[in-house]
Structures are given as structure tokens and as C-alpha cells.
Amino acid sequence: MRTRLFGNTGLRVSEFFLGTMSFGAPDTGTEGLDTHRRVLDAYAEAGGNTLDTANFYQDGRGESTVGELLAGRRDEFVLASKYTGPRSTTDPNAAGSHRKNLRLSLEQSLRRLGTDYLDIYWVHIWDRHTPVEETMRALDDAVTSGKVLYVGISDAPAWVITHANTLADWRGWTPFAGVQAPYSLLRRDVERELLPMAERFGLTLAAWGALAHGALAGAGTAGGPEAGAGPGADTGRWQREQRVRYTLKVVAEELDVPPAQVALAWLHGRSHAVHPILGAATPGQLAENLEALALELPAEARARLDAASDIALGFPADFITTVGPDVFPQDHARLDARV
Question: How far apart are CA 299 and CA 337, in angstroms?
């Protein structure tokens, strides 16, 4: 596995991140801890270095488990966690992106993870009730203290992220270097605003749900793309998913590889900014998914997957594309655009 730079920073992160949402699940016990350790070891042996967790995964056991697994080797990894999610169900200030929750969440995460700093600290979701100025200043204070090295934001509109980074630029605060968002063959919404923004401003886009929570890891649909939807289903969405999964199945069979590898290879090749987040229940599953790094999809196969999963970009992208030749006829005829 190769490394890339994290946003506009000098931090080296691996092409695929390792998601640890399932680490510390209550029904796994000692056997589960050993499996998680072997998954982590397999990831590191493949050249991976970036671990993704959050303060409320498995009610906090996720961070504690990751901390236990990293004992004695923490500095070998780029360790990332998130806040905003609830620390308590009764305290109204135990959630949100405000200064109080940031400070208490960060201290709690550091204790659980057994470390005195985080490489990356993510805002987990846009908090509409906290001024972005407060969040950015509080994050910068955490960086200044040395407890956080870099910051990012997950699940937020593009305009919020650019607004936050503009404020950071004006005031000398630490800007967001990365964005997290769902991205897969079944969910390409990020191509409307978030991915173009990330590419334009040099941000890393960490893609969660890369296999659509398992929907892209199976064998596809037995009935093909014309299979009927079940009662009460959103017919258009159902038909699109059937079409995508069927096309994925066909391409995988042609290449003689598992569908998950094709889905991950497609995502990995979409943009240099994109880093899929992998979740794996076993070392074998992780190793199989990592083989997507070496899978070169034929142009024709990629085109079929693109067509099957295509979405309408909506206004203004569709409108600008449509009217562009009429508004700028000479540009379209003779202008060499910037690369």
C-alpha cells in the first residue's frame, strides 16, 4: 500500500484507512480482541497506517479497544478519532461541536486510547446550533496545546467546510485538512459538491460506507436488473440498486474477482483525493479487500459501472453543462482549458 499526503499537510496517510467501528462490540469478548489484533497486524503488514475511530463507537469501548491494541506501538500509526457524538444521554452539553463538549470529549478519548495526542481529530457531524467560529477556534486551541495535530470534519455541507476554512485562513487558525462522507457505487452524492470542493482545495476525502454496508460485497441479484421491487419499496431506488449490483456481479465474474474488490477498485480510482475506509471482520476479509489496490479495471468495465450507478448532479452543475456551449460558444470551440 502506498501513502499520500493528508490534505494540504505533510502527514503521510495510507491509501486505505482502517475503520474500527466494530472494535469492542459487546459480544466479541477475548476471542474478538484477538481477531481485531490480527486485523490490525494484517493492515500494518500491508503498509497501512491510518486508523479511524470515534468517541461513541460501541459506547466508548471502540476507543478503549483500539488503545489496548496500540499499547507499545501507538506512534507507528496515524490515529484519528471524532467528537460531537454524545458522551451522555442526560447532559444537554454532552453532545455538539461547541467548546465544552470538544474539551471533555478530547480528554475522554485520550484516556481511552492511552495516548497524549491524536494525529487527526474529526468533527463527527455538522452541529447547526454551534457557530463555526467557535468550533474552529476550539479546534485550533487543541492543536496549539499539542493534543491534536490535524483536524477534519465529517458529514457536513460543502459550504460549511469552505466557510470554516476561510475563517481559519483569515484568522490564522488550523484549517480542516480532510472531509469524511459516504461514497460508493450505490451512493455518489459527494460528486455534486463535496468531492469537487475537496479536489479544488486539496482536501483528503475519507470515504465511509465504501461497500454500502455489505450491499456491494455479495454476489449481486439473482434476477438481474429487471427484478421487481418488494411491497412498499421506492421503485426507482430499488431498480437503480438492482442495476448497480447486477453490473458489479457481471464485471466481477468477467475479471474472476470478488465483487467487493471491483467496488473498491472503482472507488479508489475515482480521485486521488479519495481514501476508502475499510471495515473488516477477519484478517482474510481485509486481505481480500486490499487486493483491490492491485486491480486495474478495464476502461470498458469502469464505463459500465459508471453508467449503471450514474446520478443526476442537479442544479447548477447540470444547467451549466447544458447551457455552456450557448453562453460561451467560442470557449467550447477553441479554448484550451486549464488542466
Answer: 24
Domain range spanning residue 288?
3-217+258-297
Supply the pLDDT for residue 222.
45
Asked if residue 249 belongs to a domain, the reply is no
Model confidence, pTM? 0.93
Question: What's the total number of domains in the chain?
Answer: 1
**Residue 269: pLDDT above 50?**
yes
Quote the CA–CA distance of 133 and 163 in Å, as a whole number: 9
Structural domain contains residue 223: no
CATH code where residue 109 lies:
3.20.20.100
* Residues tagged active-site: 57
Task: Confirm whether 188 is domain-assigned.
Answer: yes
Residue 288 lies in a domain: yes
Report the relative pairing of strands 118-123 and 12-14 from DSSP bridges.
Answer: unpaired
What letters, b where the CB count within 10 A reaches 16 and e where it falls short, cover 53-91? Answer: bbbbbbebbbbbbbbbbbeeebeebbbbbbbbbebeeee
Q: Which residues pair with 123 in a beta bridge?
A: 83, 153
State pLDDT tens for residues 69-84.
999 999 999 999 999 9
pLDDT range class, residue 337, cuts 50, 70, 90: confident
